[in-house]
Amino acid sequence: ALLLLLTATAGALADPQAGPAGAPLGPDNWQQWWVPIMTPATGDRVFLLETVVYRPTGNGPFPLVTINHGKPRGSETMVPEMHPGYDVAAGWFVDHGFAVAVPMRRGYGSSQGQISDIAGSCDHRDYFISARMTATEMEGVITYMQRQSFVDPKNVVVLGHSWGALGALGVAYDAPLGSSALSISLAAVARSCQARFAAGRTG
Predict the structure, then answer these.
(1) Using one digit for the tens of pLDDT, what is the confidence trace for 52-74?
(2) Which single residue of 48, 126, 152, 159 could bond 61 by disulfide (Cβ 3.0 to 4.6 Å)?
(3) Which helix (H) or strand (E) holds 89?
(4) In this structure, are residues 40 and 137 in contact, taking their beta carbons and an 8 Å threshold?
């Protein structure tokens, strides 16, 4: 099973196209997807986000959960090595009847584009704008997944870990159609410049 998973992932990365790449695998129907998004910052240019989708067996429609990652701890050189995780959490939601999408924002992992989720310098960080910038990509994923036949577009749960939680606050502010619940997981507040109220900068 692991060999099949690695093979499917390698093939998907070689020539990405919007939508699913390969067949679902395993009991949680793990499947590589490339989710196309456009944001106000990117104009009419489309970027494909590396995403993993899990779902129960069957046609649905299932309520949707999106799980959104934080920032890497330490060197930014780790960013390209990041890939969708949260298998345990996703498995729990699948067991309870949810479809799950775990996207990587622009510039993270194998997602196209440049990272664009921070506004301001370290000492003058604008967390409101940062939350909105992060949220636009998360909302792009939600909108695309709401169009899938196996998703119930009126029932969407947004989960955020660390910096992804800041983005989830931005989603709550924008209140996109169908978002019916919001769960936040924030990192601890630290005193250093890099971590002062910086979700995701402390782990």
Answers:
(1) 999 999 998 999 999 998 877 66
(2) 152
(3) helix 87-95
(4) no
